[in-house]
Amino acid sequence: MAQIKVNDLSFSYGSSFDPIFEHVSFTIDTSWKLGFIGRNGKGKTTFLNLLLGKYEYSGNISMDWPCDYFPYKIHQEDLSKNADELMEQWKPGVESWRVMCELSELGVDAELLYRPIRTLSFGERTKVMLGVLFAGENDFLLIDEPTNHLDQEAREIVKKYLAGKKGFILVSHDRDLLDACVDHVLVLNRATIEVQTGNFSSWWENKERADAFATAENEKHMKEIGRLKSTMQQSRSWATKNENTKIGYDPIKEHDRTKNARSYIGAKTKKMESRVKVFEQRMERNIAEKEGLLQDIEQIRDLKLSPMEHYKDRLVEARDLSLRYRDADSAVFEGLSFE
């Protein structure tokens, strides 16, 4: 299949000071089963909307294939309709027999297509929408959190179904789903974007190794910077102290000092100052090498919760409490006591 090339992409929402994407470039293949990974708020759904052409951006996104997005929108007035009536609105040109074939792979009866949407469970709606999504041809599919609101059995069915497909981007926080269904990952790190071959677990293993190396390198550079700073300050102190001896001296304590000593002291000071400059250059080099080492390491902050003390030990007390709705035959509860 073809490639999607993103070149120098920048985008930010008008109400935000911080850009979502800034001068981003990468390439993905439309035949991949691509897992899209990143923290909440990093821009995963935003990028899908950029592929769909919903927002204006700077830079260039080059692709030859149309995109389709899951989940399809269901409006309030659509709840009384069935999927057979809505599928043309969801995916123009889709053929019913192809949808039925996809539904059979998902283990559900085509009868679901003719039931009102409001009567379908979340799992049934997901399966119907996935059947419509994959019933087309030559589409690159953008799948956003397909296992939300599904029970374990439905999740397993969706996972098995997607594992047999290709040509999609899958956004999910379900690690098990990503491990089973993807062969490449597109990762929104804290400061960079990367594309890797493999699934979630292989990427996570690589990330842990890279983070450990970056942390060790950062500590090494910090120690070297501290050592250079200490040596530089000592050399600068010596140079200043030495320079101050050029003017004014005690003839009793320095009775052997000659007139030529002034030029000697100046030369010695200049040599010490040169050493200081060398230390400064080495320190700047270490700082430059350290820069960016920790840019993609997630910082976990401690969360501290302090319980507030109330001025009363007992907040609520109920004794022999009963509740009955008006015109009801029986009470909701009777004789309830708690504190």
Primary descriptors:
single chain, 339 residues, alpha/beta, Rossmann fold, 6-stranded mixed β-sheet, 39% helix
Structural write-up:
The chain has eight helices and eleven strands. The protein has helices at residues 44-51, 83-90, 96-105, 122-133, 152-163, 175-181, 200-244, 261-290, and strands at residues 3-11, 21-29, 33-38, 58-62, 67-70, 140-144, 168-171, 184-188, 193-197, 318-323, 333-338. The mean pLDDT is 83. The protein is flat, with a radius of gyration of 34 Å. With 339 residues, it is of the alpha/beta class. It folds into two domains: 3-200, Rossmann fold (3-Layer(aba) Sandwich); 209-290. It has a six-stranded mixed sheet, with helices on both faces.
State the gist of this model:
This protein is an alpha/beta fold and 339 residues long. It is built from eight helices and eleven strands.
